[in-house]
Every structure is written in C-alpha cells, then in structure tokens.
Amino acid sequence: MLSIKHQLLSLVFLLGVSSYVLSRNSGAAFDVTTGEKRPIYDSAPVGLSIEFFAFPGYVQDVDKTSQCIANLDAASESQTRVRIGGTTQDRALYDPSLTSPAKFVIPTPGGAPLNLTYGPSFFDLAEQLQRPTVVGLNRRLNQLDNTIAAAKQAVETMDNLFAIELGNEPDLYVKADPIANNQTWTPALDAATQIDWQKAVSSALQKDDIIEAGVFLQPPKFSVQELAPLEQGNGTLNIVKTFADHAYPQSACGGSKTDLATLMDHARIKTFVDSFSPEVEAASAVNKPIVFGETNSATCGGGGISPTFGAAIWIADYVLQAVSLGYSRLYFHQGTIGNCAYCWWGTSNVFAPYYGAYFATSALSGMSSVASLDDGTTSLAAYALYAEDCNTPKRVVLINTDYYPNTTTTSRPSQTFDLSSLGEDCTSVKVKRLTAPYATSQQELGQTPTFGGVSFDNSTCDALGSEQYEYVDVKDGSAQVEVWSSEAVLVYVS
Ligand SMILES: *[C@@H]1O[C@H](CO)[C@@H](O)[C@H](O)[C@H]1NC(C)=O
Ligand SMILES: *[C@@H]1O[C@H](CO)[C@@H](O)[C@H](O)[C@H]1NC(C)=O
Ligand SMILES: *[C@@H]1O[C@H](CO)[C@@H](O)[C@H](O)[C@H]1NC(C)=O
Ligand SMILES: *[C@@H]1O[C@H](CO)[C@@H](O)[C@H](O)[C@H]1NC(C)=O
Ligand SMILES: *[C@@H]1O[C@H](CO)[C@@H](O)[C@H](O)[C@H]1NC(C)=O
After folding, report:
1. Signal sequence: where (predicted)?
2. Ligand 5 in contact with 349 (CB < 6 A)?
C-alpha cells in the first residue's frame, strides 16, 4: 500500500469530527453475559503484513524483528501469522539465478522501488520465519510463467507456506497495466484473470486450497461479493484457501486530512468495520474464511496520527470489532523501513501502535468466542471473551476511546464501567491497563506506553519492567472499573 487511495472513504469518515465529545465521568453499565457470542476463528488474529521489497530488510537488517514477533507469539500462545506482499509484489519478477534475496534500486530516499527482482533465497528467508506465511506474487505484469516459477519455488522451500496471492489490490489496476491487455479494467475482467490464474497456478503446483483470493482495497465495486459467486460458478472454490480485503480507515493521500480523535472513536470504528459486513457474508456463503490481508491506520505517510498511542487504542478496538464481525485475521502492514508512520517497530525504536497489537493479542489468546456488549453508539467499547464451554466470560475488554491529546489543559477524565454478572463465586477481578500520558504520545519522542506496567525496549523489543495488575472487588457479581480517556483495560474474570 504505497499509492494514492481511499480518499473518498476517508472523507466520509472525517465528517462530523466533533461528535466524539461525550458527557464525561458518566460511565456505562454492562451485564457481561449479554451480547451475541461470535466465534473467534484463529488462534492468532493479529498478524503482520510486510511490504514485499522490504521483507528481506526486516529479517536481515532489523535485529529486533524476531523478538517483536516472539512477544506476540508468547501473548497468543500461538504463532503470529505473516503475509509478505503489497504494492511492490506487483512490481516484482522472479529471477531463479539471482543469488541475493531481492535486487532493486530506491529511486528517492525513503521511497519504494519501481521494479525489482527476487531470487530463491527470498523464500529461504520466508521459510525461516517458521510460522504460517502468505506470499503475494505478481499478476499486474501479466507474466504467468514467471509467477508459476516463483510459486513452485515457494512450495518447494516453505513448509510454512499458508497461501499465495495472485496480485495486490487489483481494483487499482488500469488499462495500461499489462494484465489488462489494452482493455478497460473492470471487475469482470479482474475475475476472469484471477480465476484463470488460480487454475493455472493450482494445476502447476498440483495443490488445492492454496490461493488467498480477492485482495481488494475498496469493496464493493471490486469485491468478494462479486468474485465469490463466480469462483463458485466456475468450480474453483477448492483452489481458494481464503478471501482477503484490505482496509485503511484514513488517508493522507492527495491532500486528504487525517484525524486521530476520529480514528480512535469507537462509534466510527464500528461503522467502518460494519461496512465490510457484506464481504463477510459473501465469504461465509461459500464456506470460506475472510481476512484483512493488509490493513493499518492511514495511507500516504500516516498523516501525523499513525505512530501515536491513540493508534494503539484504535488497533485494540478495531481488532476486536473485526473479529466480532467474522474476519479470521488482520495483517497489519509494515512498510518501508525508516519511513513508515504506522509501523510497529523500526531500526531504532519500538512504536506506540505495537502496544495495541500486544493488547489485542493478549485479550484474544486462547479464547473461542467474543461478544460485543455495547451498541456502538458511544465512545465506550466493551467486549466479553469466552473460553470453550463457558457461560461466564473469562476476560472482558473495556476501551475508553475519548480523545485525550497533549494539548488538553484539564485533568484526564475517566469513565466508570459498571460490570455485572461476573459470577457468584467471583470476589475480585484482575485488571491490566494499557496506558500512556496522552493519545498523542509517541515512544520515540519519549512518552512510552505501558501495558500492565510493561514496556518494550527500543533496541531489543524485550519486555521492560515487572507486570502489574490492579485488583477490583466484586460484590454480588458486580464490579466497577475506571478507565481514563484514551485508555484500554483487560479484565481477567477467572
Ligand atoms: C526499473 O526502475 C528503474 C528506476 O528505479 C529504472 O531505471 C528502470 O528502467 C526500470 N526497469 C524496468 C524494466 O522497468
Ligand atoms: C492499445 O490500443 C490502442 C488503441 O486503442 C493502440 O493504439 C495501441 O497500439 C494498443 N496497444 C497495445 C499494446 O496493443
Ligand atoms: C466463471 O467466471 C467468469 C469470469 O472468469 C464469469 O464470467 C462466469 O460467469 C463464471 N461462470 C459462472 C457459471 O459463474
Ligand atoms: C504533542 O505531541 C506531538 C507528537 O504527537 C508533538 O509533536 C507536540 O510537540 C506535542 N505538543 C505539546 C504541546 O506537547
Ligand atoms: C525509546 O526511545 C526514546 C527516544 O529515542 C526514549 O525517550 C524512550 O524512553 C525509549 N523507551 C524505551 C521503553 O526504551
């Protein structure tokens, strides 16, 4: 995701910026056993998407990458999933004789290559991730034999290969792209080439269940809604492992304005995620999983909001909302090393959004279903998380998405969440708090977030500090938990 996109969508979500102001210190009451339980499909719903050309750099040059991923593995007690792809997958051609993983020229400092080649050792690095990994290959340049050669090498090298994408965000292809063969690019033409390529690649690999299909940025024009029935009609669903959409709620492209208060706001997060509900239904109608194959806060440089603690709060709520809707997994995009506002870590620092990923991963770890407790109309979010066969939730997530920036001169407001039905035997709950001085806080600028008192070291990504819990009394199954503006807490019920 590097180019101009999503301007209209971000405009829609920016309208009415001021309505996040709620009555303060009023609080909200939640019976934790209410809400519709929705299944959690994956043991590690929070994944990473790594931009194709940048992938070798992340694993070879950024020492902390393995520890930052290992922390998430430990939090999920599973393996964090990775997708390698993005805009540059559609600029890349496979060169079986190349001895380095990838070869490219960066045209402007901090930019992305206009074209690149990659060799067999690219897949050795992907294999060394030792976790389920999606590899995004080229369709835009219309070199099917080249993509098949790469796919064969991926299968041969990677025991951990989860799926292959054939093209990135094909809704953005144009008539001048070789795959369009000089025809106007339409959803029908995309579907025709997607399905043809799936058949060719699957047959060359002699593998079913291998393609991550769709990979669309802006449904519904190009969408799973449109593609899935055609896959079914053509009898190609056996080739499809999963469907994927991409999503960025805001954009700084082409003069679009970003807004942190809007990004964080729970009601807007719910509206944004709900707009994908026809996509989830379309995948479910053909019995296939659906993922956000690439996602993050704001395109085109992050617009000044992406590296902040507010973006961590956004991730916490967005992940739980997307999982509640039926997305199996979200792959958060990591772009150009050293020039990536929404990235979770870079060469010198760990960034605030990483804490949101760690929080959401901890909340979902080992859980089998989630129920949204609020109606999505205010800035307060509450989710109940259930382990298998339990009637009382094991964990509750409470998020106060009220915006608390460093320009505020008043003391930090709070909201009291009145929780009930925590269970007759329950006498106290443990609370782990995700906080930072402000929504605008950035670790690299000296305002380090904490989750239960723990931070992550800038150079090693090791956890720093000892884990702290707060204990809240429960009387007759009820407890009151206070959450300050721009904070989230994870409540351990049992
Ligand atoms: C690849 O990109 C470079 C600039 O980065 C350009 O000079 C070169 O002509 C391009 N090659 C092809 C085949 O497009
Ligand atoms: C594409 O079509 C235009 C006219 O519509 C023609 O001039 C051009 O040569 C065509 N290009 C290719 C590569 O076929
Ligand atoms: C098969 O896919 C093509 C697009 O490749 C589409 O035009 C056609 O309608 C599909 N067939 C059925 C029966 O769905
Ligand atoms: C607020 O934080 C931003 C970084 O997010 C920083 O650039 C700005 O200087 C800070 N302003 C104040 C008043 O501290
Ligand atoms: C990370 O680095 C920034 C400045 O580079 C520093 O102010 C901050 O304290 C560091 N945080 C941690 C947890 O190492």
Report:
1. 1-23
2. yes
